[in-house]
């Protein structure tokens, strides 16, 4: 009787262990399945977010949503020039077309002031495209340009000959630095055609000379008229605008304009 009871207890105990083992395996399997499903869902969501970001035309071109047509076209040309594969070029062209069409659609459907002006007219080229626009250099480049101006002015002040020689040398250096500043903004086309490359270089050099030289002429012209204006108003003309210092002051003022153009404009 005791042995029968013992065998019955052992049998019951074995079935209990077997049931516990089966339940444990089922729970572990359910946990593994849930973890795998969660990982797949997380990867799917991340993939959706990455795809949405990659399909954003503004992110592809690297411009802000409110950028004007010039900034968009400049970014488009820069991206196309650096693209290495056909897929990249196709994505860039698609993004550029999408932005232009969306701006046109916003203007047609927005009506009046419902849409910001920069967005409504993003596909239109601005008037006076030749005018200088704000584009600040890095702080070190601004300091270098200021140092070039100071060195040229010091040399012109100490020179026993005409002060224009050192000032023109400073202007030439600022012009070269302005050209290098415009290279990322007006890159060479991605082609082997020498004519297109020459045209792009000529256009960039003309832009650099126009900004630096135009501001030189503006600042020098303003200072050159100061004595006449003061005399017309019967005011005292400063000593630095009389005699030999007049020519020096006009040149220094012009070089200030060139330094400002090379540092803060494009």
Automatic annotation (TrEMBL):
Q: Which domain of life is it from?
A: Eukaryota
Pfam families per the record?
A: CPP1-like
Give the lineage.
Eukaryota, Viridiplantae, Chlorophyta, Chloropicophyceae, Chloropicales
Q: Which residues form the signal peptide?
A: none
Protein name, entry field: J domain-containing protein
Query: Membrane among the record's keywords?
Result: yes
GO CC list: chloroplast membrane
Q: Where are the transmembrane segments?
A: 208-233, 245-265
């Amino acid at each position: 009787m005791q042995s029968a009871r013992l065998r019955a207890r052992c049998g019951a105990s074995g079935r209990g262990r077997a049931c516990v083992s089966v339940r444990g395996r089922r729970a572990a399997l359910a946990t593994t399945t849930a973890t795998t499903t969660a990982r797949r869902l997380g990867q799917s969501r991340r993939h959706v977010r990455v795809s949405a970001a990659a399909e954003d035309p503004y992110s592809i071109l690297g411009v802000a949503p409110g950028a004007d047509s010039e900034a968009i076209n400049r970014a488009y040309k820069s991206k196309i020039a650096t693209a290495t594969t056909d897929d990249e070029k196709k994505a860039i062209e698609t993004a550029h077309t999408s932005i232009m069409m969306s701006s046109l659609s916003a203007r047609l459907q927005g009506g009046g002031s419902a849409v910001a002006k920069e967005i409504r007219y993003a596909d239109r080229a601005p008037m006076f495209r030749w005018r200088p626009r704000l584009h600040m250099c890095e702080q070190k480049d601004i300091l270098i340009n200021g140092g070039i101006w100071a060195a040229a002015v010091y040399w012109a002040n100490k020179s026993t000959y005409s002060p224009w020689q050192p000032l023109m040398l400073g202007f030439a250096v600022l012009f070269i630095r302005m050209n290098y500043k415009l290279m990322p903004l007006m890159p060479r086309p991605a082609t082997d055609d020498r004519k297109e490359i020459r045209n792009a270089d000529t256009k960039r050099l003309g832009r650099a000379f126009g900004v630096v030289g135009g501001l030189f002429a503006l600042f020098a012209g303003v200072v050159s008229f100061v004595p006449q204006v003061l005399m017309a108003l019967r005011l005292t003309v400063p000593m630095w605008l009389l005699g030999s210092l007049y020519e020096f002051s006009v040149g220094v003022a012009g070089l200030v304009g060139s330094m400002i153009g090379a540092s803060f404009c494009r």
